[in-house]
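dumping the sequnces here before i forget
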Amino acid sequence: MGGWAIAIHGGAGVDPNLPSQRQEQAKQLLTRCLNLGISALRSSLPAIDVVELVVRELESDPFFNSGRGSALTEKGTVEMEASIMDGAGRRCGAVSGITTVKNPVSLARLVMDKSPHSYLAFSGAEEFAHQQGVETVNNEYFITEDNVGMLKLAKEAKSILYDYRVPETCSAVVENQWQMNGMPLALYAPETVGCVVVDSEGRCAAATSTGGLMNKMTGRIGDSPLIGSGTYACDVCAVSCTGEGEAIIRSTLARDVAAVMEYKGLGLQEAVEYVVTERLDQGKAGLIAVSRNGEVACRFNCVGMFRGYATEDGSMEVRIW
Amino acid sequence: MGWAIALHGGAGDIPLTLPPERREPREAALRRCLEIGVAALKAGQPSLDVVELVVRELENCPHFNAGKGSVLASNGTVEMEACIMDGTKKCGAVSGLTTVVNPISLARLVMEKTPHIYLAFDGAEAFAREQGVETVDRSHFVTLENVERLTQAKEANRVQIDYTQPMPKELAKQTIVVDGDSKVGTVGCVAVDKNGNIATATSTGGLVNKMVGRIGDTPIIGAGTYANSLCAVSATGKGESIIRNTVARDVAALMEYKGLSLKEAAAYVVEECAPEGTTGLVAVSAKGEVTMPFNTTGMFRACATEDGYTEIGIWPSV
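..and the predicted 3d for all of it:
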């Protein structure tokens, strides 16, 4: 064991009817981001820099639910959140309610490095971004046509679901019986992104970024920016989660992987297995994790998870199912 | 077995020289809130109702850093946050409140009336109005003491953690003499009712002179607030430290994964995991045990159990 390792994800909970063209696109994007991370690791960039770099790439691409391409709030706007954690010293940074910052994960990093705090949100976070001179754009930049369409369907599905409680009588899209967060997977768009890395010095780091839940109430904060829920890193491991945010929060999923390793002495694989099968109760979610020994693990209890991983000894994989 | 309750009004560098006019109102408030909580438990109220009730009282009390009496952010306003959780892991949290009289009650509404766990800032304020909770002009929450604290913090150009940090000697001396009371704390309450149901609630105005939009440990499940079937925890101290140490979750995790008792788990987290001077907490177990450890100079606290034990204190009991 030992050596660097990297894992990335683009969300847990994938519509089994996802057209193969979309599946191909997803795999290409994951492969590209993974390769970016691998090059960075080969040039000895520290874990904390690698996770930021990779998540920036995932945010900039409109495919997944982060940065550009984020899910829309009930008002049709974008409110993004992200967090980053450096296992060495367990320094962390997080942001929520981001509406103009092009790369929320980088703002989270600045909160960690350049502010006396760990978590900034909404107008205060935007003000900080302005002071720091990060790249900002109009909220429209983040909104894609796809998501505008999705929001419309989600609103229809929600009103129908609540009125009739019979999903099968809705439109064709809603006929899909796979559900997460009470909504058909086709509309749910849970594709939060994340990256975990252990570098060749054994330092672990994690970062997660998302637009959140489609049709969420404005001001709703999910698991992604919450240290211990969506993101966690310490001496021993680094974890990034995705799925039903509320379930991940209740189960403090990311922290539990590390806690079970630290307090029960489980190895990474066992810890990840245990936490996903025993800690989520009815919740649907997935996670990626690396250990300081260069191991990598991934587990999800729902249908599919966009993911990829690579280790120094040459193994590399990109998968959806 | 049996009911138990513990509450706190903040942990930090509370000087032993705290003058009586600063100490007595807080002790009296702790006593009053404890009595309210105990009466509710004796009357058979569920622990979730009890912790909300007690924290509402603490929020309404201007001597603590929650609700009225909240410390001020750098722009001179309050931004309040709160969190509530029960042993079934249902939870609710709010941040960035400026007009809601009782943030803890809004957190409870988020838990019970929305599909979400956490609402913040404008979205939370809008939700408050939809729910018809009591809101007031933001000036209601501002107290003269807090305006003074903010002024001092700005002069010293520092973000004041609930209680003073290690500072240059002259400054420290000056602060203790001139403002022996620049320290105010987050509030919280944990309880187990006669049916063994547990709950926790925490509420705060955050840090003096904090950046607008700064969120601390209080509303972060697992950091300042956590409950599961084993125990309920509410933490206080330096928010940034409590977040990285996932304090509240770790107490429960140690009980669960290492088989430690409530007292052992809480002591371990406060003594071994949290740096000196950063953390205090109150916790109860489903079995009716209670513990209130802290690694700061003091922590405003009070507890009571069904078998008659009562404690109200500020500094370590001798």
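Confidence is low (pLDDT under 50) at residues 161-176 of chain A.
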